[in-house]
Amino acid sequence: MSFDDQLPPKVRLLRAAAELLANSEGSAVSTRQITALAGVTAPTLYHHFGDKEGLFDAVVSAGFEEYVAGERDFAPSGEPLEDVRRMWDNHVQFGLSQPHLYLVMFGNIRPESRPAIVADAEALLEEMLNKAAIAGQINVPPREAARSILAANVGVTLMLIAEPVEERNLELSTMTRDSMIFAVSTDTARGAAQEDSGKSSVVVAAIALNAALQASHSDQLSSSELKLFLEWLHRISSSS
Amino acid sequence: MSFDDQLPPKVRLLRAAAELLANSEGSAVSTRQITALAGVTAPTLYHHFGDKEGLFDAVVSAGFEEYVAGERDFAPSGEPLEDVRRMWDNHVQFGLSQPHLYLVMFGNIRPESRPAIVADAEALLEEMLNKAAIAGQINVPPREAARSILAANVGVTLMLIAEPVEERNLELSTMTRDSMIFAVSTDTARGAAQEDSGKSSVVVAAIALNAALQASHSDQLSSSELKLFLEWLHRISSSS
DNA sequence: CACTTCATATAGCAACGCTATAGGTGCTAG
DNA sequence: CTAGCACCTATAGCGTTGCTATATGAAGTG
Question: Which of B97, B101, B109 to mutate: most A Cβ within 10 Å?
């Protein structure tokens, strides 16, 4: 079950750590597991990497290359904010596909000690947002926007990782993503501001919904469903 | 340096753990430190709390009371979204004032294991957003909005905790906060990125009606009718 | 009193991250 | 060729971690 003995121990350690981080489900990854899989003993690890975190940092560097490659590889679409959207999605995807590695990179939080990779990810985002800024598409300095978006991005990814796989709903990601991007963008084209928002009630809302439904012929319900729905709506809205 | 011997060991353990979590800088908190400070031995801890995490959960419950008290204590301003803003700030403040406790509550992330408190915090937020929905002030279902906002809130707080104290810039928080709230709210000239204005008003109205119905337990429909009605409403409001 | 139940202590296990020390290996200098 | 010198790795074990099998005490109940 050990690794190719041809390779130098340093490489074997890196690969073993990466594999264990990628595959271990739930429980933590110990140095003993790593050294056993790499076919070396403890001092070898500490000789090359100083300590456990040093090894993980090295693994992360490799993983980060992959991450960055993902972030950079798609050709710029000419629409910087669209690229930011894709960077967000790539970030989430990376976190969900390699949760343990992601947790080492972004989830290992202690007071006043910032994972090195955060700064890099921030820089990548900022770079892209800078293009958006040049194009006059954002209304916030790129650096602040990058920090803000990254914080939300990490928060969403961590929350998704913490959820049971079958419950993971990527809509949380897309919704938060679009909220953040929308908020920093200067694109003011937005329809349908609600005028009477002040004192809405069941009745007002029902009336509004009723009118809107009849106007737009929503296709979310079948015609018979819609008929019954509208009847109930009428009962509610005419009740008080 | 031990605790008041009058108190029952269970309480002494809780206080010791809370104190160590609050004061320990950087390093982790061990069961031996806790039991030593509480003046008991290991089995006592495991008898009362099952395991270390059980003890921490209990501490967190107490800390959560404090957190919730902070979240609830300010009188409703009549402006739900303003209250959401204050809940956000209170959340960040709590995290920065008790970083270790916060990290146990929100930062202890492992795949597929969600800290219990997240659901509670989500419910608190959702409750407030429900009021906003009734007032027709948001264009997203309250539950989804709550999850999204909470994810961003946690992400921001974690990022601030990870930063050196002197670099912590609360503007990251306020900016992200306002971005998120702005994006889900309807009351601005800019509003959400809905393409079709007609459909958008359907959505807003449906969300408002849905929230209002659940709040007021309308008796205009029988329970079975209401159930079906709400299901249809959900179908409409969750379609974008 | 006998008996059960709860709560705490003694002692120790297995696993953890890590290291002092020593031995082996391959290189270069004399 | 050999001596010396880095460099690398293994043996063995330290101190600490979370946790527990077992035993003992206290407190209530018949």
Answer: B109
Task: State the pTM of this model.
Answer: 0.77
The phi-psi region of residue B136 (left if phi > 0; otherwise alpha if psi is between -120 and 50; otherwise beta) is left
Rounded mean pLDDT of chain A?
A: 79
Average pLDDT over residues A59-69: 79
Question: What distance in Å separates the CA atoms of residue A147 and residue A126, rounded to the nearest whole number?
Answer: 8
Measured distance CA(A55)–CA(A16) in Å, rounded:
11
- Which residue, among B79, B106, B190, would best test binding to A if mutated, counting the most A CBs under 10 Å from its CB? B190
**pLDDT tens readout for residues B44-99:** 999 999 999 999 989 988 777 777 776 666 666 778 899 999 999 999 998 998 88
Q: Cβ of B182 and A183 within 8 Å?
A: yes
Strand D bases with any atom < 7 A from protein Cβ: 8-13, 16-22
Q: Which residues of B touch A111 (CB under 8 A)?
A: 25-26, 99-100, 103, 161-162
Q: Are A188 and B185 in contact (CB under 8 A)?
A: no
| DSSP annotation of A76 | P
SS3 A138: strand
B199 touches A: beta carbon within 8 Å:
yes
